[in-house]
Amino acid sequence: MYALALADRGFDDVLFKVDVEPSGEAFNELSLEGNTGRPRNPMINAGAITIHSLVGKPDSTPEERFERMMSGLSAFAGRRLEVDEAVYTSEMDHAYRNIAIAYMRRSYDIVQENLIAVVEGYTKQCALLVSARDLAVMAVTLANQGLNPVTGEQVVPPEVIRQVVTVMSTCGMYDSAGDWATQVGIPAKSGVAGGLIGVLPGQVGLATFSPRLDAHGNSVRGIALFERISEDMDLHLMEMPPVSQAVVRSNRVTGGIRVVELQGDIRFAGAERLIHEIVSTVAEEPSVAIDVSRVHSLNPVAYRMLRGVIRRLSLNGYTAYLIDPEDVVPNPDPGGGGHVTVVRSLNEIPV
Question: What class of enzyme is it (predicted)?
Answer without folding.
Answer: hydrolase
